[in-house]
Amino acid sequence: MKSKAKKDVLNEEQKLKWIGKSVKRIDGPEKVTGEQKYKTDYSYSNMVWGKVLRAKYPFAKIKSIDTVKAEAHPDVICVLTYKDIPGFNGFGIVTPDQPVLCEDVVRCTADAVALVAAETVEAADEALDLIEVDYEVLEPVTDVENAMLQGAPKLHKDGNIHSHVTIKNGDIDAGFDEADYIFEHTFYSPRQMHAFIETEGGWGRMEEDGSLVIECPGQYGHRDKLQIARALALNPERIHVYSSPNGGGFGGKDEITVQIYLALLAMNTGGRPVKIHLSREESVIAGIKRHPFKVTVKTGAKKDGTLVANKVRAVADTGAYASLGGAVIALAIEHASGPYTIPNVDMEGFCVYTNNGIAGAFRGFGVNQVCVGIETHIDMLAEKTGLDPIEIRKKNAYKQGDISSLGHVVKSSVGTIETLDKAAACDLWKNRDYYKNQVSEPWKKRGVAVATSFHGVGMGIGTPDYGAATIELLQDGKFKVGVAIEEIGTGNGTVYAQVAAECLKCDINRIVVVQGDTKQTLDSGTISASRSTYTGGRAIATAAPNMINLLTEEAANLLGVSVSEIELAYDRLVDAHDHTRFVTYEEIYESLHDKHRSKRVEGHFYLPKEKEELKNSGGAPHHLYGYMTHVVLVEVDTLTGQTDVIKVVAIPDVGKVLNPQGLEGQTEGGAVMGIGYTLYEDVLIEDGYHKTKNFTDYIIPTIRETPEIETIPVESNEESGPFGAKGIAEVVMIPIIPAIMSAIYDATGARVYHLPATPERVYQAIQESKPQSLISR
Amino acid sequence: MKTIRFTVNGNEVAVSSPPTKPLLDVLREELDLTGSKECCGKGECGSCTVMINGSSVCSCLVLVGQVENETVITAEGVGLAQNMDVLQQAFIDEGATQCGYCTPGFIVSAKSFLNQIEHVPTEEEVKTALGGNLCRCTGYTKIIKAVQSAAKLSITQQGVKN
């Protein structure tokens, strides 16, 4: 039976026309010619410019705000403060603790105090200077550990600890008692910036019918709509959000950026459209960042390589507001013991308020920061025991049906061991001694290392998570596929077209995809959490049979046969007994149209969830995870400490590859973003003020730093996914982080625990790793 | 305000503008050529790259007065969807565009570079030529391949013509 089932799958795969193929991006021509219009590329003839007055201090009481002089500026249309907010003065995806416009206190320099609309951008800037805000400056809270102390100044009324999550399993003390080796280290991670190339911006405008239109890139237009409605006390039905395409997001456009400012201004400009487009400098200050973590990890293992205990304490700096900070620390703790079966774990995480800007969602969502602990300790164990680092990981990795470190049975597909097998077999790993000897200069040293990790797909327990798609037959015989989930760069629209064409058995050119449009599409959740291919794909695959039913019924009518006698052929419907008799989609449209019948169907999908939430975990475990192994080769300049990543082998467990080129786009982009995180990137904030201003002093990898990247996919066939696929957009940047850290050690014998591993830190670590006699000499 | 004449994508234009207005803003606001983007506003990212007399420059750092009587080419001038340049087609074929916001800048930089050479560039040469353009999505690997495959194709086509 089993072999027959497998054979059927194979036959099915051979028949696939679009799935698994490197279908070219459907939005490619517009993008490469510059014809693609992003939201700030639109123009309206009677427009006005909007600007935001940000807080002058990271922590201060507002004593008064005087807008009289600004309002008197001849080119100013309106100046708005908290008094002008008709509804709730706050936003935030989970806890709306961030004021739209501050009333009595500012908590970071990202805070907005007033809005201006003016005839020119220069006039708007002048008006900002004319607004007089009287502050009483307070001492900023800038260190997470100090922020947690009893006597620390409180940023919010409930104190500075926004959330505290724990996961415990087994008996941690007994675990350490049976350990032959114990490793304990503290790791610090950077405040990474999303550095999307398109800064935040867009349009707010009133339609003639009194509805409000917001054209602004975002990662969940339907939710943006609700947050706008809450602040403006509007009926959400009277707000239309157009949020696609995004010029990059990576989580940085998940939260509200400027949508509510646009909405407020648009309602105060006498019907004139208002545009805000943040400069990079303002984006650096105002935009959310990755949470910097302090993570202490203690790992116990036996001589034979069995991991027996893992204790983790992670503290995340969420800055002045929660945004998704609570969810980030929860996901971090869920993943902090790796994709392993460690029987005794004791993990806790704190999400803490400070006056250091604002942190929120970012690709990897907390896992980047914690994976370094367990992975580094496994490499240390390998060195101590002489065991192979890949074998240790395989020995401890859970398989589908096993019990994870969290204590739950993992029911979905797990590809960890296969990714590790492919790592062991890849050229870079097998021939690592050869590659390590090919140094480019005598004072440079090379190292090779491996790491593995995982990342939840979709939301955890307790958070709504659903997909919805519409398919509409058009007059020209095309299908309009509507999925609200935005195009953000990943190419999900192309995958949606592939899934639709495959399910409807038609040419892909017949598929028109609509995304990020709250008027035309149903709420389908976020473009985040590695969920969009999986969720949108499943929603389309659920809608498609409804469309086929609609087409079949009408074809049966037109051909005068019964429904069971209609076959869905490629690009047409035929009479099963006589293939020369067929109807086209255009004919079906015309027939339905004449009968005033709907040409649109829907498909809905709820992501599978685990039934039992781990107590105090904040939503763990996930039902579904993507898994990934990285092998890297680095070269370290021992004279300067500069590290270059030379080669990367990326081995993701994707369930099923839907588009090989799109997958490589993710693995390559993720690897390079992981390199930036590990080696260069950090937004520096001192005393609450950003020292980092622009790309002059925030260094992201350029084309010169890009290594050779090879992608070797593993297909574990996830039964719940579209054609077996699952999400990978975040995990692609995760294991590369500890892999680079261990490769630096392999090269130099020096470990860096504080990321980014800048030349200064690596150089210092090399000096400290040398025997004392050498240093004193 | 001054009337400034120059050529954009083969068309002679006259714009009425303060001569100190950045060329990027004139292209975007006066001429509706929005392929060129502002990302950093200070010449760090290359998203606003245009060719002036064949050389690639950041149009956010050029004042419109400086291009009087000069020839400017933007990504739209390299080719539109109806008649794409081989380079643009190669970007699609190789999967070298993702969010696409940086792509017009890359297209112009790469086109300017390919115009100056008559061979298939090495990876190192491509990296040097495009070192001033930032991309956050792709990891650049496919951009390198696209530039090389466009060069290959151009040379083959040239060979056929000759």
Keywords:
heterodimer; A: 777 residues; alpha+beta; Aldehyde Oxidoreductase, domain 4; 4 domains; 5-stranded mixed β-sheet; 28 strands; globular; disordered N terminus; B: 162 residues; DNA polymerase, domain 1; 2 domains
Helix content of chain A: 25-40%
What profile does the largest beta sheet of chain A have? 7 strands, mixed
Q: What is the CATH first-level class name of the largest domain in chain A?
A: Alpha Beta
**Helix and strand run of chain B:** EEHEEEHHHHH
Query: At the first level of CATH, what is the class of the largest domain in chain B?
Result: Alpha Beta
Looking at the structure, what is the overall shape of chain B?
Answer: globular
Based on CA inertia axes, which overall geometry of chain A fits? globular
Please provide the count of β strands of chain B: 5
- CATH topology-level fold name of the largest domain in chain B: Ubiquitin-like (UB roll)
Number of domains of chain B: 2
How far the N terminus sits from the C terminus of chain A, by CA atoms, comes to 73 Å
Question: What CATH architecture of the largest domain in chain B do you see?
Answer: Roll
Structural class of chain B: alpha+beta
Q: Hey, which two chains have the biggest interface?
A: A-B, 58 and 57 residues
Report the sheet-strand fraction of chain B: 15-25%
CATH topology of the largest domain in chain A: Aldehyde Oxidoreductase, domain 4
CATH superfamily membership of the largest domain in chain A, which one? Answer: Aldehyde oxidase/xanthine dehydrogenase, molybdopterin binding domain
Low-confidence stretches of chain B: none
The CATH homologous superfamily of the largest domain in chain B is named Beta-grasp domain
Report Rg of chain B: 16 Å
The strand line-up of the biggest sheet of chain A is 3-5-1-12-9-10-11
Characterise this structure.
The complex is a heterodimer of chains A (777) and B (162). Chain A has 777 residues and is an alpha+beta fold. Chain A has 4 domains: 2-19 and 466-606, Aldehyde Oxidoreductase, domain 4 (2-Layer Sandwich), CATH 3.30.365; 39-138 and 200-277, Aldehyde oxidase/xanthine dehydrogenase, a/b hammerhead (Aldehyde Oxidoreductase, domain 3, Alpha-Beta Complex); 142-189 and 288-396, Aldehyde Oxidoreductase, domain 4 (2-Layer Sandwich); 409-457 and 619-777, Aldehyde Oxidoreductase, domain 4. Chain A is built from 22 helices and 28 strands. In chain A, a hairpin with a 2-residue loop joins β26 (685-686) and β27 (689-690). In chain A, α12 (389-396) packs antiparallel against α13 and α16 (492-504) runs parallel beside α17. The longest helix of chain A is centred in the C-terminal third of the chain and has 28 residues, at 532-559. Chain A is globular. Chain A starts with a helix and ends with a helix. Chain B is an alpha+beta fold and 162 residues long. Chain B has 2 domains: 2-77, Ubiquitin-like (UB roll); 86-158, DNA polymerase, domain 1, CATH 1.10.150.120. Helix content of chain B is 38%, strand content 15%. Chain B has a 5-stranded mixed sheet with strand order 2-1-5-3-4, with helices on both faces. In chain B, α3 packs across α6 (141-161). The longest helix of chain B is centred in the last third of the chain and has 21 residues, at 141-161. Chain B is globular, with a radius of gyration of 16 Å. Chain B: Keywords: 2Fe-2S, Iron, Iron-sulfur, Metal-binding, Oxidoreductase. Chain B: InterPro entries: 2Fe-2S-bd (IPR002888), 2Fe-2S-bd_dom_sf (IPR036884), 2Fe-2S_ferredoxin-like_sf (IPR036010), 2Fe-2S_ferredoxin-type (IPR001041), 2Fe2S_fd_BS (IPR006058), Beta-grasp_dom_sf (IPR012675), Diverse_Oxidoreductases (IPR051452). Chain B: Residues 2-78 form the 2Fe-2S ferredoxin-type domain. Chain B: It holds the Pfam family Fer2. Chain B: One of its GO terms (molecular function) is 2 iron, 2 sulfur cluster binding. Chain A: This is Xanthine dehydrogenase, molybdenum binding subunit apoprotein.
